[in-house]
Design goal:
alpha+beta, 3 helices
Amino acid sequence: MEGCPRVFAIGDVAATPTGDSKQGYPAAQQAAHAAKAICALMRGQPAPLYRGTANAMFVPIGPSGGVGELPMLGGMMLGDFAVSTMKGKDYFVGTVRKIMRAK
């Protein structure tokens, strides 16, 4: 946060200079960075610069459809097969549960 070097924001409330999207993956990256920055400040070291994440989006439509976009090559579009394979099974709920160590 500008002018407040010891205040950190992650997720939907964060306005990053890199324009991170308001999604779970960037929020997780922001949280990891905030933890590293806080640890560095506690050791009397400068906080590392946040470099942001690459914005990608996958929108499943049911278990076998959807559309997605990757930031590479000017915005690579993905169709039904790729999106349903990556996200259609459980909408990343299983992945998030693992990250959060939920049962």
